[in-house]
Amino acid sequence: MSAVRRWDELTRTELADLAPDALLVVPVGSTEQHGPHLATGTDALLAGEVARRGAEAASQPETILLAPTVAYGASDHHLPFGGTLSLRAETFQRVLADLLASAAAAGCRRAFLLNGHGGNTAACAVAVAEASREHGLLCASAIYSQLLEPGSVAAPVPGHAGLFETSLVLAVAPERVRLDRARPSPGGAARKRLRGLSVAEPGRWQELDGFTDDPSAASAELGAELLETCARAAAAAFEEVAALHV
Amino acid sequence: MSAVRRWDELTRTELADLAPDALLVVPVGSTEQHGPHLATGTDALLAGEVARRGAEAASQPETILLAPTVAYGASDHHLPFGGTLSLRAETFQRVLADLLASAAAAGCRRAFLLNGHGGNTAACAVAVAEASREHGLLCASAIYSQLLEPGSVAAPVPGHAGLFETSLVLAVAPERVRLDRARPSPGGAARKRLRGLSVAEPGRWQELDGFTDDPSAASAELGAELLETCARAAAAAFEEVAALHV
Amino acid sequence: MSAVRRWDELTRTELADLAPDALLVVPVGSTEQHGPHLATGTDALLAGEVARRGAEAASQPETILLAPTVAYGASDHHLPFGGTLSLRAETFQRVLADLLASAAAAGCRRAFLLNGHGGNTAACAVAVAEASREHGLLCASAIYSQLLEPGSVAAPVPGHAGLFETSLVLAVAPERVRLDRARPSPGGAARKRLRGLSVAEPGRWQELDGFTDDPSAASAELGAELLETCARAAAAAFEEVAALHV
Amino acid sequence: MSAVRRWDELTRTELADLAPDALLVVPVGSTEQHGPHLATGTDALLAGEVARRGAEAASQPETILLAPTVAYGASDHHLPFGGTLSLRAETFQRVLADLLASAAAAGCRRAFLLNGHGGNTAACAVAVAEASREHGLLCASAIYSQLLEPGSVAAPVPGHAGLFETSLVLAVAPERVRLDRARPSPGGAARKRLRGLSVAEPGRWQELDGFTDDPSAASAELGAELLETCARAAAAAFEEVAALHV
Amino acid sequence: MSAVRRWDELTRTELADLAPDALLVVPVGSTEQHGPHLATGTDALLAGEVARRGAEAASQPETILLAPTVAYGASDHHLPFGGTLSLRAETFQRVLADLLASAAAAGCRRAFLLNGHGGNTAACAVAVAEASREHGLLCASAIYSQLLEPGSVAAPVPGHAGLFETSLVLAVAPERVRLDRARPSPGGAARKRLRGLSVAEPGRWQELDGFTDDPSAASAELGAELLETCARAAAAAFEEVAALHV
Amino acid sequence: MSAVRRWDELTRTELADLAPDALLVVPVGSTEQHGPHLATGTDALLAGEVARRGAEAASQPETILLAPTVAYGASDHHLPFGGTLSLRAETFQRVLADLLASAAAAGCRRAFLLNGHGGNTAACAVAVAEASREHGLLCASAIYSQLLEPGSVAAPVPGHAGLFETSLVLAVAPERVRLDRARPSPGGAARKRLRGLSVAEPGRWQELDGFTDDPSAASAELGAELLETCARAAAAAFEEVAALHV
User: Fold this and answer.
1) In this predicted structure, what is the pLDDT of residue A235?
2) CA angle (C53, C57, C59) in 5-degree steps
3) Considering only CB atoms, which chain D residues are within 8 Å of E194?
């Protein structure tokens, strides 16, 4: 049985005791198209799974409070593909900000948004900055896959619904993968950009048919290995934030 | 194995096929204090459970698409008790409106917000009206416990964290109940109001210590019976909405 | 001469004296199409009229402060018919919330939104909850026609611009009725829904041609009787809220 | 009987006929403190009265549609005095913008906001510009008292609850004046500013005790004369806007 | 060397010393089409130039803090002409309100928005009122050209991209004028309106081809004279506000 | 004379010709405290300077349109230090989004936000994504100092008001530096975080006294070298975005 505590399984009394010295971890996902081969709940599933495993792998799992996964994210750019239930950027930003504000009201002093969807990144940054400034909450955020050291795993740079995510889902919930529908993205390789430069290209997701690289070589074995690496990286990040003075 | 389909387990391709003729059911909960004896995730847990069982009990379960539960609701009135992760009323309203708008964009023509938290009611009404008016979505909402005929169950009028909800959680996830902490609410019986009159009394939740009636007599047996009745009522409501012409 | 006091006829000095022990009653209406036979100002007219008569009929009319009627409501669903001056749902909600916040700032401790338009209901609920929570205002709301006991009047369930409202206007301001234009709604009888279920059907108002049931049998006599019953029901509701401890 | 038509007394059918060739006049007021001697409903009363009389005095009164008075305005600066029911600036701006947008949707092509409260001016300007730009509505606004030529009336420059407004209310609704409470404003004469310069001084309304100049010399006779002059000025403004090509 | 201090050239330490006794002057411009003959940056250029010269001409220039010019304003009505970078009315209003709020937080007690664009006026008024009411800031605003006495300059009433502005730019930055492209506006003379009446006519800017009167007679000599007059008027306005008690 | 064109120096006619094939570069700065030794306008100054030099250094400078610098940014976290004129995060986000929307309306197809302030990053990301999705604008953003390759310059990682920025300002506008007030930040070295992890620590800027590392060794020579490197990096980024297909 896990030492990690889930917020929604505890009473207000227990949470009042735990909150001040705990690290609140909020998995943040999305419900959006992931190509023709992967289920739409991928990001929420994986953010929750990495958060739980990372918390269990941390040195003091009993000091981590795991909040319910935020299942819907900022996915308006995927609406044209169908299968997507999305919050507008402004709404989603307020969701995260409100959650962190109420976490502070509930006595929390440290919070961590563990994010599984690139489109959520700016909202996480805004919410974290606001919670720190307005509510005195020590606040961190990360996309779980970007906690990995480059070259540390036998997979290309994590994209969207590519080899990386497809393998992870095969390891966690294989019934959510239609591997026979997987094929290379028609949009070509991810474009290398100059360091520090980010570009939003209209129509790029359409060129890619909504997913990156080549998911067809995905395997549960690779997924298990990636999952383990991600969980260790998340654990290290949780430990780093838990150790900060508040 | 259930015939009910979960949105997050399907691909965009499958959803594009199913959406036009399906009823999208979105369970809507909250993460908020439920007295000293009941876990904070009660409303999200029960809305999701009744939605799933109701969908399975419906006459054509294969036409129901079950969306991920909205785990956070409008619970600002419970913030003073701690243990509460809440969205402001305005934020929460936008969450529901955005989800219904993207459901319409994904090809859905019928949607149902199955709500487990009284504080969410107005936001559900606003979102449903907007989605119908702006996006042509046939849209319904209900608090699952208010679908019951009065007198049809051996429990007092469903309140908050009282005998009704505590029994339900004992039936579904008993590890979330601290029955030894349950006692009658110090705030007295629910106040009878004139028909059609609703009143918001400042400080009333404090008088009640955050829960209604007397959860101490809750039992898993009663919960199982209530759950069955709720699921049947939800199934009937789903069938009614699924049968409407669009 | 009435003992009821109108806010807009009093000075700030008088209001400062009266506000703490008074019940502020705010009639809330709309300006929207009411079929081919009834004037667009119906809801504001009737909410104001029932509020005034209810206040006069209450046991302590001198403790009631009657605010100016909110003449414009949330009527976007009637825009396609013409004749409608509407506030968006979000705007209207802020109107009510701002009014209640300033009522609290003016020293009021009890307020009652007496609503005459179904489309305003959710906004009333949100505003009342916010005012109670944020400003400590004891706050109530009701649609005046829903305060009636079913079967207590010789008219069908109150709808929109049907027999009920048309009769009321005949009794109050007959020059606002074109009885020769009244005919049964082409959309058929109001649909019976399962208890607790609310449904927003796109196009339903168009099917009904913008009004319910059959206004053609309306009469001033019936209207006078309904008005008396509504006023008594409003008086009882005012008394109940005025008696609550603050 | 007046040839002026009131929007709220007409049906959607009649309004659909009239709207395209009519000038919609919306009186815009406030409900706010007017010193110890004048009722809080002064601005709404006078805006409505001048609008009605101006419409009747216009050369083609039958082409004017008089909307219900907007009874609540942007009065947050008067909240500290009590007696004030105010909309925040942002809310009030949306109210006017929404009304003009729905007027355009109802077939109107010309609209006029006749304003009785200085604090509403900026919101009127924003709403008028938006309605013209976004909805193609020919749109005008004016504070009724600023339509007067300087020196054309035997009263000081119109202020707030001073000689000008107090006299007008004595002429229109004398029961709303407590002349025995009227005295000169303790804040001294209105400050002359450089042409084109507007200044908001914190605490200035407090220095003035919430009203300008000296209302104690107000009379119904002066009020009747002012009212006549204002109505003629409003009539001229309505005619000018009605004559513009759309 | 000027005695006027620029906010952006000073450190926080210096500003903390200066702010309480200084008048903060914020030039407010726009970046919008100015006909075929004048550069789009005209309003920002001129507001900044008049502000600087006005500050230098004031009796105590060392007490004036000149903020960076707000280069983008509310110009949505000019979007159809191209060349326009505009903020929506609501955004722009928040920009000014936020700047004044932070000026108050930085210790300022007096602020002046010197505006160069008519379309910014309402937003200036709202921001100034809010800053005075919410933050206790003594706050003024003016369009610089409206500080002039009528008849005091040898040019028609200042319009948009007409003789007045074109001459000013010829004096300040002649490389921004294409005098060979200047011609009379095809829309005819500015329409005289009744005193106190403002009208927004859809399509009027198109009739005018986006500029008023006749810029073709503009000259650097006239511009230099206008500039001097505007600067003296601004200086007088700054002195008046600087002398007010806070 | 530079081949780079400034938007505000051109007419609408010229911009209509240039916009479709140009890259619009918008320098984005802030006006905020930069320690006791550096002027508050640093970020706006440097973003504008690097943008201009980068544009001039690009291979086709004549295809670059330089917009006026956005002088005010999201600096609420610096308000406690004084000297800061800030936009709230939500306002600032709307500013950038509105500017990009109107750039698209003005015929631009490519835009680049060259940012000089870390606190602006999330707003840039949101605006860029929205403009790409909603308006079909190819859109890029970068913090200019993060375009540098690590180790490519003889200065520590660029911070806030440290050696890097202080040297740059010494090279560009030495009158804005008080080198005698420069000293090492009392808050110690920048904290190394795990890769991919971002943390907002309440009170951290106070510990640092509002600036990073040690500005006391800054020099104009180093600044000139850094400026040259930054300009080359910006030029490369501009070229990359200008070459993308639209």
Assistant:
1) 98
2) 145
3) 147, 233, 236-237, 240
pLDDT for E156 = 72
Show which subunits contact F, needing at least 3 CB pairs below 8 angstroms.
A, E
Assess whether pLDDT exceeds 80 at residue A2: no
- The distance in angstroms from the start CA to the end CA of chain B is 30
Contact D60, D51 (CB under 8 A): no
The whole-number average pLDDT for the span A130-145 is 97
For chain A, say whether B35 makes contact (Cβ under 8 Å).
Answer: yes
pLDDT one-digit tens code per residue, B105-161: 999 999 999 999 999 999 999 999 999 999 999 999 999 999 998 888 877 778 999
Kindly indicate the confidence band of residue D1, based on its pLDDT and cuts at 50, 70 and 90: low
Q: Which residues pair with C77 in a beta bridge?
A: none
Residues of chain E where predicted confidence (pLDDT) is lower than 50: none
pLDDT single digits (tens) B42-71: 999 999 999 999 999 999 999 999 999 999
Q: Using alpha carbons only, how large is chain B's radius of gyration in Å?
A: 18
Helices in chain D by DSSP H: which ranges? 12-18, 42-57, 89-105, 121-135, 163-172, 204-207, 220-242
Q: What is the pLDDT of residues C140-166, one digit of tens each?
A: 999 999 999 888 887 777 899 999 999
Q: Which of E200, E186, E204, E188 is nearest to E36 (CA)?
A: E186
Give the sign of the dihedral formed by CA A14, CA A19, CA A25, CA A30.
Answer: positive
Going by DSSP bridges, is the β-strand pair A138-143/A198-200 parallel, antiparallel, or unpaired?
unpaired
Closest CA to E245 of D201, B46, A86: D201
Q: Phi first, then psi: what are they for F162, rounded to 5°?
A: -95, -155
In order of A4, A24, C242, E23, E35, the CA distances from A51 in angstroms are 10, 11, 52, 53, 58
* Distance to chain B for A210, nearest Cα, Å: 10
Which range, of C197-201, E192-196, F58-62, F233-237, averages the lowest pLDDT? Answer: E192-196
**A positions 44-63 inside 8 Å of B (CB):** 44-45
Helix, strand, coil shares, percent, chain E, to 5? 50, 15, 35
Antiparallel, parallel or unpaired: β B5-6 and B64-66? parallel
Full DSSP string of F174-235: GGGB-GGG----TT-SPPP--TT-EEE-TTHHHHTTT--S-GGG--HHHHHHHHHHHHHHHH
Cβ–Cβ under 8 Å, residues A128 and F198? yes
Cβ-based neighbour number of residue F13 at 10 Å: 17
Residue of C nearest to D93 (CA): C91
Within a 10 A sphere around the Cβ of F245, how many other Cβ atoms? 6
| Spatial distance between the Cα atoms of C129 and C113, rounded to a whole number of angstroms | 12
Distance CA D136, CA A244 (A): 58
Q: What separation in angstroms does the CA of B239 have from each of B234, C203, E161, E246?
A: 9, 20, 65, 68
Quick one: pLDDT at residue E20?
Answer: 98
Residue C176, CA distances (Å) to C51, C158, C172, C183, D71 in order:
19, 19, 9, 16, 22
Let me know if A109 is exposed, middle or buried by CB neighbors in 10 A (0-12, 13-18, 19+).
buried
Amino acid at D115: N
Measure the CA–CA gap between A236 and A240, rounded to whole angstroms: 6
Q: What DSSP line would sit under C172-239, residue for residue? A: H-GGGB-GGG----TT-SPPP--TT-EEE-TTHHHHTTT--S-GGG--HHHHHHHHHHHHHHHHHHHH
- What is the Cα–Cα distance from A96 to A60, expressed in whole angstroms? 26
For residue A192, give every residue at least 6 positions away whose Cβ sits within 8 Å of its Cβ, in sequence order, or none. Answer: none
User: How many C-beta neighbours within 10 Å does residue C174 have?
Assistant: 11
What is the full DSSP assignment across D234-245?
HHHHHHHHHTS-
Residue A159: both structure tokens together: 């994209």
Whole-angstrom distance between the N-terminal and C-terminal Cα of chain E?
30
Contact B190/C at CB under 8 A = no
